[in-house]
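Sample intake sheet
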Amino acid sequence: MGRSSKGFTFIELLLVVVIIGLLGAIAIPSLLGQKKNAELVGDAQQNTKSLQMMLETRKADTGLYGAANASAVWDPTGPVSGSTSLAPLFAPKGATQMTYTLTVGATGLTYDLSVRDNRPGRSNKLIFQSDETGRQIYP
């Protein structure tokens, strides 16, 4: 009587487990990195909205977003250059590796806000830009 073959051998099952383990070892770190990146971008979006609300309040009070051609830069340590009178209370929260650059247009009625990623290996990569319309532009 011959032996009937039903199911998988131990070697076949072991091979499947090894393959699944290798795929997991490759995929899990990548997914965790994407989660961290999403958190940073989310923090940057919240900070941008906060700064935009400050600018809109300023425009409602004075008629302008700021002095013509004024600019300011904030990094994780706080304001680093330019006219901090544009948004004196603004302090980036959460996204500690982002730099925010605000530039008011020549008329004082427009502005451009850019957010750059300063994490190692990102080389000041532009994350997104926004303007007085509130629209966010992604590269």
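Comment: The mean pLDDT is 83. Strands lie at 71-75, 78-82, 98-104, 111-117, 125-131, 136-137.
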